[in-house]
Amino acid sequence: MQSCDILIQARWCIPVEPDNCVLDNHGIAISDGRIVAVLPADDARAQFSPGVLVDRPDHVLIPGLINAHTHAAMTLFRGLAEGLPLERWLREGIWPHEQRWVSAEMVRDGTKHAIVEMLRGGVTCFSDQYFFPEVVASAAVDLHMRAMIGTPVMDFPTPWAQNADEYLAKATDLVHDPYADHSLISSCFAPHATDALSEESGQKLRVLADQLDRRVQIHLHETATEIATTVQDHGQRPFERLSELGLVNASLMAVHAVHMTEEELQQFSVTGVSVAHCPRSNLKLASGIAPVQAMLDAGINVALGTDGAASNNVLDMLGEMRTAALLGKVKADDAAAVPASTALRMATLNGAIALGLDDEVGSIEVGKSADLTCVDLNHINSQPVYDPIAQLVYACNREQVSDVWVAGRHQVENGDLTQVDEEEILQRSREWQQRIAAV
Amino acid sequence: MQSCDILIQARWCIPVEPDNCVLDNHGIAISDGRIVAVLPADDARAQFSPGVLVDRPDHVLIPGLINAHTHAAMTLFRGLAEGLPLERWLREGIWPHEQRWVSAEMVRDGTKHAIVEMLRGGVTCFSDQYFFPEVVASAAVDLHMRAMIGTPVMDFPTPWAQNADEYLAKATDLVHDPYADHSLISSCFAPHATDALSEESGQKLRVLADQLDRRVQIHLHETATEIATTVQDHGQRPFERLSELGLVNASLMAVHAVHMTEEELQQFSVTGVSVAHCPRSNLKLASGIAPVQAMLDAGINVALGTDGAASNNVLDMLGEMRTAALLGKVKADDAAAVPASTALRMATLNGAIALGLDDEVGSIEVGKSADLTCVDLNHINSQPVYDPIAQLVYACNREQVSDVWVAGRHQVENGDLTQVDEEEILQRSREWQQRIAAV
Questions:
Q1: Which of B10, B220, B236, B314 has the maximal Cβ count within 10 Å?
Q2: Is B78 within 8 Å of B313 (Cβ atoms)?
Q3: Residue B176: pLDDT above 80?
Q4: CA-to-CA separations, A107 to A91, A160, A317, in angstroms, rounded
């Protein structure tokens, strides 16, 4: 008998790699936070003597979900600005509130709220893009959540920085200290969009990204207005500007990519750009519907994100998977497009690839970190079960998430948070709401 | 002090009529299954001496949700046929299973499963269209659920009837007996679609509907293929055929109505036809996106339905509201289209109008039946609250439904079913799954 820290026995296990595979009654052995074996449950019990045995007889075990794009602290603005398209939503609904309210304290409280919401929904890793990224990193470390910390770069002042040089200097600080070696924290550059980035700042950004070997993520081709404005101001589409700046390469994650020409899809494919698809946000702001199946057919790596809570209004990756699978079909005019297994892959392994974390997470494979999510199918809305993957994507809600492990730590156990005082976090959010609504 | 059976105190009450109205801290008094008063909570406590006081301090109280279109028994086929467009889904995925498995027993078990799923999700009334409608009615009565029982009419044989005359005769029986006077049960004619209806059967149907004063609901313009086939076979679009049969009037509910010309929208408006919009089913079968805001602008009454569980895959009206609100925006290219309050109205009062039940249900108004749903907003995904209607539509899941009353009977209380043995129903569904999957 071999010892291990944890042995999880699940009715079904969907490892994601290989694609569209369902393992019946399997055991997953974990030691030192890593997956050490994936094997039939009978064999697992015969071979392993676990410190903890977790038996989940009606459940499906999947890789922890990866939210490839969010603005976590915006949970505090959830439902604050309704019924506006992106440009007005930003200028009239969001930016005035951000100017007034964004602070280290607000980012800490909003991000913690978001992390708890995501953990409860089976998310084990998120890629963030917000002000005070050092506070986002600290909140993620506090709550033991894996995070890619995107550091904003802009040419206009916000409560975090006054100009592009200050954004870049602060971003560089974050790369070096104090999270450089933390196993759960990575960082990248996150310019808002090409229309908020001058030529000069873009060039500085590229040099820094190269020097520091950091990835870049940017809102790109989210709306027709964004493209039209950039063409008017610069004579180029945002993608062309980004190309000229030398930022189009395999380190780039283009967030949204709703409005794409055939040629641009080909360029994404050739250069290895990943896409973070945020379907609900794109619907809510009436931005459009991204051509996901066409992207997949072109060989583009498409990840999935919720965007911030102010334009969604939840950080619910199970719901986002469902929306992606449903919307992908109607966009492609093909009921076979974006099948359930592909939506799950977008929400796990493709996310890991887009963030450069696929050696570590994104699938249930020996050697990877034990970032795992367990979903209980024994609910009235997900019975009976013919097809566990279809059931997971089309019929399950986040409330069915029973267990979540991040790097082997059992963060959600039988539906309960093990490490977090949720009521304290909720109370802080209510206090923010009262302050913000009173103005 | 006036006595009443029940007094519900809720943090927020959204009566739906008037539109887009949120009442803070209100009380709803109920006697003999009817709403007798809606007033500020302080006044309610001063005026009423209730048999039962239900205090819901973090909750929003809304009219019970009305699922305007489903095939309830198809819960037993949930996830059975994935990745097919409507016509192949029916011919290859669904009809062979229906020929083999549909029986009074199957319809009873599948419908009970559906009713429990819907009750848990805040639905208090559903409009059904399936074989053995007398069994559907009986299941609804057993579980104290309001239902509009659509009786199928077709020109081809199924396990329920052999030809149109038999369908019509059985439908007529149902109108008269034994549910003619049951307060929860109504019935209507539910021909499948114009392509399954001969000229002769259509005429008989119209005569019977007139004689018996019964409404008609039919799948109409669901897919481009349906329209093209009908044009090829009959030289007319389905709507034109239906017009010629004399079936286009204020008693008609057109289910789906995805592909509509301007002229057809005008005809719907002029004649008073209602629409049952089923957005998730339309996405999943890649049927298309119905022009909901254009319908509303034309003055058409648009209700909301889930369709059956085999093409959705859940009977979740909160989720359907969210999808309708999100999808309506991108279809109209306008972030202000189909606001949250409109989606809620579609799922309540508009449904009642479409079913001819708006004197009885669909809004929280004195004199109407106490069909009510309470949703707990005190969850991590729906805090903080700036806008209770936005929160309900964009952020809440069916698991947040705390209480449901149907005609004043407390069917779901604090998240628990009060009258139903859910495990017994689930067990039967699992047994059906084993039989069906074994073939």
A1: B220
A2: yes
A3: no
A4: 20, 11, 21
Alpha carbon B15 to its chain centroid, in Å, reads 19
Reported ipTM exceeds the 0.90 cut: yes
Residues comprising chain B, all counted: 439
CATH pick for A65-354 out of 3.20.20.140, 2.20.25.10, 2.60.40.10, 3.40.50.1000: 3.20.20.140
Residue boundaries of the structural domains of chain A: 2-63+371-407, 65-354
What local confidence, expressed as pLDDT, does residue B379 receive? 97
Mean residue pLDDT of chain B comes to 96
Give yes or no on whether B2-63+366-417 and B65-354 have one common fold. Answer: no
d(CA A36, CA A76): 39
Query: How is residue B253 annotated by DSSP?
Result: E
Asked whether the beta carbons of B179 and B207 are under 8 A apart, the reply is no
Distance, CA of B274 to CA of B220 (rounded, Å): 12
Q: Which of residues 270-329 of A touch B (CB under 8 A)?
A: 280, 282-289, 312-316, 323, 326-327, 329
Mean pLDDT of chain A: 96
Closest Cβ opposite residue B384 in set A78, A284, A289: A78
Contact A227, A262 (CB under 8 A): no
pLDDT digits (tens, 9 = 90+) for B33-78: 999 999 999 999 999 999 999 999 999 999 999 999 999 999 999 9
Rounded percentage of chain B residues whose pLDDT exceeds 70: 100
Name residues 392-421 of chain A within 8 A of B (Cβ): 394-395, 397-399
State the fold for domain A2-63+371-407.
Urease, subunit C; domain 1 (2.30.40)
Sign, CA torsion A293/A295/A296/A297: positive
Q: What does pTM read for this prediction? A: 0.97
B117 interfacial to chain A (CB closer than 8 Å) = yes
For residue A408, what pLDDT is reported?
A: 98
Q: Across the beta sheet with A302-304, what order do the strands follow?
A: A65-70, A123-129, A146-153, A185-191, A216-220, A252-256, A274-277, A302-304
Smallest Cβ–Cβ distance between A314 and the set B289, B333, B395 belongs to B395
State residue B397's pLDDT score.
96
Is residue A176 pLDDT above 80, yes or no?
no
Taking an 8 Å cut-off on Cβ atoms, the answer to whether A386 and B314 are in contact is no
Angle between helices B133-142 and B104-120 (to 10 degrees): 40
Per-residue pLDDT band for A388 (boundaries 50, 70, 90) equals very high
Q: What is the pLDDT of residues A323-372, one digit of tens each?
A: 999 999 999 999 999 999 999 999 999 999 999 999 999 999 999 999 99
Task: Please compute, for residue A142, the number of CA atoms within 13 A of its CA located in the half-sphere on the CB side.
Answer: 16
**Closest Cβ–Cβ partner in A384, A397, A436 for B430:** A384
CATH architecture group of domain B2-63+366-417: Roll (2.30)
How far is residue B364's CA from residue A203's CA, in Å, rounded to a whole number? Answer: 60
Q: Using pLDDT thresholds of 50, 70 and 90, give the confidence band for residue A10.
A: very high
Residues of B in contact with A333 (CB under 8 A): 286
